[in-house]
Amino acid sequence: MKKLLRFTRRRLGLDLQMDKYAYDIDEQFGFMSKAKIPDRWVATTCGYCSVGCGMFIGVKKGKPVSVRGNSAHPVNEGRLCPKGLAEHYAITAPNRALWPMLKDRKGKFRRTDWDTAVKTLVSKFRTIQKRYGPEALGVISTGQLVTEEFYTLGKLIQLGFGVRNFDGNTTLCMASAVAGYKRSFGSDGPPGNYEDLEKADLVFLIGANIADNHPILCYRLEKNRRRTLVVADPRVTKTAMMADIFLPVKPRSDIALLNGMAHLILKEGKENREYIARHTEGFEELRRHLEKYTPDYVAEITGLAPEDIRKVALLYAEAKLPFIGWTMGVNHSTQGTETVNAICNLALLTGNLGRVGAAPFSITGQCNAMGTRETGFTSSLPGYRKFENPEHRRELSALWGVAEARIPSARGLAYPDIIEAVLSKKIKGLWIIATNPLVSFPNQNYLLQALENLDFLVVQDGYHPIPTSAAADLVLPAAVWGEKEGTFTNSERRVSKVNQAVEPPGEARSDFDIFLAVAKELGVYDELFPGWTKPEDAFGEWKDISRGRLCDYSGITYELLEEHGGVQWPFPAGARRDPSSTIPLYGDGRFQTDSGRARLWVVQNHRPPERPDEEFPFLLNTGRTVEHWHTRTKTGAIPLLNRLSPEAWVEMNARDAARLSLRHGDYVRVESRRGAIERVILRVTETVAPGQIFIPFHYAEANANNLTVSDCDPISREPNYKQCAVKVLAQKK
Amino acid sequence: MKLTMKKFDIIQLLDESDLPLKNRIDSKGYYAPERPSLIPAEPLAEGEQYRFHFDMSKCVGCQCCVVACNEQNNNPAEVNWRRVGEIEGGTYPDTKKFHLSMACNHCLDPSCLTGCPTEAYIKLENGIVKHQAEECIGCGYCSWNCPYGVPQFNPDRRIVTKCDMCHGRLKEGQLPACIAACPEEAIQIEKVNVAEWRANHTQADAPHVPDSGITISTTRITLPPDVPATMLRANRHRIEPEQPHTSLIFMTVLTQLAVGGFLTLWLGELLSRRVAFLAPLRDFLAYGSMGMLSVTGLALFAAVFHLGRPVYAYKALRMWKRSWLSREVLSFAVFSHLGGAYALLELARHFWNWPIPRLGMDGLGAGVVISGLYGVYASAKIYLVPARPAWNTVRTPLRFFLTGFMLGPAFALALYGLCGSVAAGPALSFLAVSAAAGLLQLAVLLSRLFSLQAAASDEMYASSFLLIHRFRKLFLARLALLTLGSFVFPLILTLGLRDGEAGRWACVALSLLSFAFSLAGEFAGRYLFFVTVVPKNMPGSFFTKGGAH
């Protein structure tokens, strides 16, 4: 009745909802929508990408109603990207997971209680381990967890369950950067800082579309008025439009370009001989190898003009503070690691690292990919320790008080290899945490086939149903960003605090609580997590573990983080420097290798694993759009963002479209040897080269990963998302 | 006391002297980034107003401004006061892709304001064109008038709303939300000398942005240095119909019918005194005018439901000095009242033989006819807006009047048959007027089609595309209905028409058929009129129609 009255009043025009659309003065942010003025602002760090912007969540009557950028935060100075500006909606999205759900025999989800859920998880996994061996279990986690959770999970899996097959979706994202840094510098850890973008006189972005993917870095870059911006990308991206010099490289020719630049630098005698002699090894081999990368040879591979290659090489060599930034254009490749090495070669040959402004810098993907890299247990042991180093294992066994034999001496399976082991029935139980492989994993048909072979699949996520949770046997509802506490580390090694603003919905619990509950059921709580109740307990132990390591957190406290909005590691206990200050790595030229010298690598440019041919004449490139985050479990449920990019599209050059009689706005089918996607809208554009097409990878409904190849980088195990062969067919509207 | 940002407290913050945040607090005490260069520091001088400046060479199309604007104003997702469009030119790899972020242009000649029938719009002294929710009746006429698609209907409030340059924030010395959010500092507020800008406003123009001369947009757009000669809109594939405005279809067609009908009756009555064969008409006058009155009532009732706030329909009278919509409402109000008086008096004269002076009735009838004709003219003027090129031609008033002259006599004839014996004289006259109007209507229709196709503008081309492709069947049906209703049935009727009772019911049936077909044809035509107009707008992004969704 009340509803009817309200409807009638509104329909007649008697109710303008003046209150809902009124304005008022907020104590902190001034004039704004009254409905969005909260009872309190909770400081936190953005939970989307790795830029790590400081922000506030406005909480009104226990609900998140608004967000604002934190102008005191050293990263973003108050700015946020469109996803960040609408981030409170991700918490209140209608597709949140509310209750533990167990699939019954008929395949229908039934609500269950936490006790049963945790007991089921442990007993199922234990049974699988008993029946098929301890390694028959796999765990795939994510760069979305806070560091404390990831650290706790690592201990739980490796020491509790005694399983090495533990990896994160970070392997789909920046594993090549990790592996590349390890090979070049002896350890992971991006040496640069965002301040470099402001201070550098040359900014060289290769395979990085920061305007779409890290808009706030554009803000930092925009403050730099004297820089020359060089962008290398096969696609004329939004970032390419910002460039002073744009290098439209052919796909997978970046190593040739980098080698060609190095060749010219040596040829012109612009290398830093002193730096090379004092701080590197492998120079002679590299020099010999580079001889063949003449401008003409490189021009043929890259499709660039020889004089452009020369121009950029000399710009880099002559710059006082040259900065190289890269993201997925480099990492998503079967040669990702080697490309990173080729980038590091350039920096080492010219001695351009270790100073603010000059660095080879991997711009990471997820909000806490860096935290998961540091706390490890996936591609390395916590604190950038090495599995194969007995000294490191001994250290950890002493710190934890567990037998050294329990600490694995070799890495377990990486993410793609876990899936392969599932397919070959070596792994029968899988626990997927806060990631959505049924959108994000390459070659979806392969993954679908693999999941059929599982005995038990647990999906722990903040959202349900999503493609992956729908396939689960057990769904554990998790708290999401804004509902839990911990720390994130951003691309520039800056540790920032993440705070709880509101309570999780339904019976959802923080991942930290879930891990502790599983540990208790497993009977390892007292041994591994004695007395732990809150994330800070994990942080305390992690500080001790990191002490003395490159990623030294020992001087960082939660209070310090909250005071400064973020502190870069290394920040050892007793550190004297201003916590807000910027600190590049390797300023002293001492690297984490056994010899203390950085390693120059001989790297060959290979062709991608699949190339266009007569049957599949297009090369497919994949990537992102600014409005969406990864698999759209969050942003797809936020109308304000989703309306701006509601469906997937295919970008195709006008010449190709004319040849195929396709028009802007037509619907097409795209097909590869592995699968197809239907009814994707065609965008005819000159931003892609003839012979190439581009499809964003966010959309489950038209999943670019139905098309992509399974090939991975042999070193990092990162998949080759960026190149595969496809054909495009017209479809009726 | 230790500062923790977890439960952040501004008062605490201000008290502490050694806090890192201290220097971030602006002069008003707000904790916000201060970027004084992005808003004018000095107050406006005489003859100046505020305006947006947009630097297209800086914008990367990140959509921050769009989202920040919605958050600032608590707007639903489908209402975007600020929108980002995309244009592209050149050939790979020398491709140029630019973005255009646009909110309200706070024009010197704001057509939203001049069209508005109420006092919903005001231009503030500082130049901001402000919309006042309480005064708005949700007629949506401003959104037809604006060439940039700026005023948008908010279905949640049932009124139109738009950007006010965050004037509440400006007053507090704060940056408008879009400016504060832009990572590229591509948007700013500046001052502009009104007279100078009026003399030369070419800097408000950009590729695919409607000509700034229409309303003298004040937004200054800095174009990148190397814009290719040919640029394409990212949303060039989105040619989509506008809303049909069902209540307006009824309202316009039926008012025109009533006016045409009254005119026919009144003229017929005048002539009947001199022309013998029209004499039988006099007995029909009372019925006829009552019929027209009923139709008018129906039309005005329908019109009210076009409004987002029907209760406040009366407010539409307010701006009769400047708004054609007000004038339309006013003249139809006069028309219906005078028509009512006329019909009642005629009724009294007919049934109770009230001695009413002929001259008085003639005068009253003239008043009805003049107010009606002016109403139809005002109706048509509403649609003559530069922002909607397919409407903005002389054909629109022609069509409206012809609709009236077609349907009015046809309706009169049908009534005539129903009310008593049919005399050939009046019946043939009705038929003749109606058929002649129908013929002209057909000519206007076909000429419209050719003129649309020949037009160079994107919007006109899109209109003809909709008419010929998307609505082809309906368009053909509309032509068929017109032909049947105006020519075929009347011809049969003419051939078979006899005086007196003989064949009266056949005549009634045919005249009803003729009227029904004609009416259906005009409804279909009016539907097409509304849906196939393609408004001017800012260029949209790939997924938006016009600039809006």
What are the defining features of this structure?
heterodimer; A: 733 residues; alpha/beta; Barwin-like endoglucanases; seven-stranded mixed sheet; six-stranded mixed β-barrel; 28 strands; 33% helix; B: mainly alpha; Formate dehydrogenase/DMSO reductase fold; three-stranded antiparallel sheet; 16 helices; disordered N terminus
Write the topology of this structure.
The complex is a heterodimer of chains A (733) and B (549).
Chain A: H1 2-12, E1 23-26, E2 30-33, E3 40-45, E4 54-60, E5 63-69, H2 82-85, H3 88-91, E6 101-103, E7 109-111, H4 114-132, E8 137-141, H5 147-161, E9 166-168, H6 175-185, H7 195-199, E10 202-206, H8 210-213, H9 215-222, E11 228-232, H10 238-242, E12 245-247, H11 254-267, H12 273-279, E13 280-281, H13 283-290, H14 295-302, H15 306-318, E14 322-326, H16 328-331, H17 336-349, E15 359-362, H18 369-375, H19 390-400, H20 415-423, E16 429-433, H21 437-440, H22 444-451, E17 456-461, H23 467-470, E18 474-477, E19 486-489, E20 494-498, H24 511-522, H25 525-528, H26 535-546, H27 558-564, E21 567-568, E22 598-599, E23 618-623, H28 639-642, E24 649-652, H29 654-659, E25 667-671, E26 676-684, E27 692-696, E28 724-731
Parallel strand pairs in A: 8-9, 8-16, 10-11, 10-14, 11-12, 13-22, 14-15, 16-17, 17-18, 23-27, 24-26
Antiparallel strand pairs in A: 1-2, 3-4, 4-5, 6-7, 6-18, 19-20, 20-21, 23-28, 24-27, 25-26, 25-28
Helix pairs in contact in A: 4-24, 5-24, 5-26, 6-17, 11-14, 11-15, 11-17, 14-15, 20-22
Chain B: H1 10-15, E1 48-55, H2 64-73, E2 83-91, E3 94-102, H3 111-115, E4 121-123, E5 129-131, H4 141-145, E6 152-154, E7 159-161, H5 167-171, H6 177-181, E8 187-193, H7 194-199, E9 220-222, E10 231-233, H8 246-272, H9 285-304, H10 324-352, H11 358-383, H12 395-419, H13 424-454, H14 458-470, H15 472-496, H16 504-531
Parallel strand pairs in B: 1-9
Antiparallel strand pairs in B: 1-8, 2-3, 2-10, 4-5, 6-7
